[in-house]
């Protein structure tokens, strides 16, 4: 037992000074424990709702409204800003901060495989015309092989009728290189007898009267043809003045002037030949006659000497 210096019993004083706390009367009933449990549950639920609400608000604010904060290490802040913008707006790309080096642009090397070449420029496909084979004169007699077949001469014999004159030379003056007599005696040559003129042409060719114009045409199987057409000259107009007005030239050159002779060898009508040797113009009696050679798609003068035979045989009635 403890005693102080006065000799009093201090243990009894300590006991007397102990405070006893008693539960308030409203909590000492038989339902006090249940009420305490309900209150604790309410506190827990409210706390949970507050925590969830705060977490959801933080997620919306930082992850949706402000954008994705988890930026890859390799992406620049400019890219992150562009990514975070609304999908309803279009953001112009950020200009590069470093200058672009002035490097010359080289032209692309064309592919050697046409099938793999893709061109964005519309192009016009060129028209390819096959190269025509040269006109052949196997025996060098002045007539090419095509002409010799037409008039019945031997393309490998320069003097088919053995009269001492080459085939081409005979045809040039109106004689038959395949036998005796004039060229009209050749069975492969025909005469067209029209209303105002006559003219010779190859018998194997077809004769066609042209519609829409005054003229006649003599066509070969390979679609080359000779054509004779005519028109009325203006009053006071002659061959020279018509030629100058039509072709805008001062006058035909001497090389273009030709003489059309009659059967006796006399000059019957003057004529003018075009520079390309494909047309002859003859004027008489107020009419102009044009004798033309159309080479068609082939383009070669396959029948140049037969064309000379035709216009030299031209006779006005």
CATH superfamily of the domain at 190-316: Mog1/PsbP, alpha/beta/alpha sandwich
Share of residues in strands: 15-25%
> What is the number of strand segments?
10
Please list the strands of the largest sheet in the order they lie side by side: 3-4-5-9-8-7-6
Integer average pLDDT:
76
Question: What CATH architecture of the domain at 190-316 do you see?
Answer: 3-Layer(aba) Sandwich
What is the tally of helical segments?
7
Q: Given the C-alpha coordinates, what overall shape results?
A: rod-shaped
Quick synopsis:
With 317 residues, the protein is of the alpha+beta class. 26% of the residues lie in helices and 18% in strands.
Chain-wise SSE layout:
Elements: H1 10-17, H2 32-65, H3 77-84, H4 145-151, H5 167-172, E1 189-193, E2 197-202, E3 206-209, E4 215-219, E5 225-232, H6 239-247, E6 257-261, E7 267-273, E8 279-284, E9 287-294, H7 304-312, E10 315-316
Antiparallel strand pairs: 1-2, 2-10, 3-4, 4-5, 5-9, 6-7, 7-8, 8-9
List keywords for this structure.
single chain; 317 residues; alpha+beta; Protein Transport Mog1p, Chain A; 3-stranded antiparallel sheet; 10 strands
Overview of the molecule:
The protein is α+β, with helices and mostly antiparallel strands and 317 residues long. 26% of the residues lie in helices and 18% in strands. The strands form two sheets. A seven-stranded antiparallel sheet has the order 3-4-5-9-8-7-6, covered by helices on one side. The longest helix is centred in the N-terminal third of the chain and has 34 residues, at 32-65. It is rod-shaped and about 155 Å long. Residues 1-7, 68-98, 111-124 and 126-130 have low confidence and may be disordered.
């Amino acid at each position: 037992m403890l005693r102080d210096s006065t000799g009093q019993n201090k243990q009894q004083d300590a006991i007397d000074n102990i405070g006893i706390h008693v539960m308030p009367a409203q909590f000492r009933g038989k339902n006090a424990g249940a009420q305490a449990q309900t209150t604790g549950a309410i506190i827990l639920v409210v706390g949970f709702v507050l925590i969830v609400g705060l977490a959801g608000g933080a997620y919306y604010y930082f992850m949706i409204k402000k954008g994705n904060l988890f930026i890859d290490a390799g992406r620049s802040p400019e890219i992150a800003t562009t990514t975070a913008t609304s999908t309803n707006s279009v953001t112009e790309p950020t200009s590069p901060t470093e200058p672009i080096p002035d490097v010359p642009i080289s032209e692309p090397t064309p592919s050697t495989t046409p099938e793999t070449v893709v061109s964005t420029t519309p192009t016009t496909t060129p028209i390819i015309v096959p190269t025509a084979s040269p006109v052949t004169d196997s025996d060098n007699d002045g007539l090419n092989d095509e002409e010799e077949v037409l008039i019945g001469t031997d393309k490998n014999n320069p003097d088919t009728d053995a009269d001492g004159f080459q085939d081409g030379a005979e045809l040039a003056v109106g004689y038959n290189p395949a036998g005796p007599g004039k060229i009209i005696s050749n069975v492969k040559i025909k005469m067209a007898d029209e209303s105002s003129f006559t003219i010779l042409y190859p018998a194997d060719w077809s004769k066609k009267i042209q519609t829409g114009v005054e003229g006649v045409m003599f066509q070969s199987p390979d679609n080359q043809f000779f054509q004779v057409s005519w028109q009325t000259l203006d009053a006071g107009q002659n061959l020279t003045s018509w030629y100058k007005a039509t072709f805008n030239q001062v006058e035909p050159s001497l090389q273009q002037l030709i003489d059309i002779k009659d059967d006796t060898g006399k000059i019957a009508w003057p004529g003018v030949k075009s520079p390309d040797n494909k047309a002859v113009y003859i004027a008489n009696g107020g009419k102009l006659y044009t004798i033309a050679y159309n080479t068609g798609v082939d383009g070669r003068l396959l029948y140049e000497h037969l064309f000379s035979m035709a216009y030299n045989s031209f006779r006005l009635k």
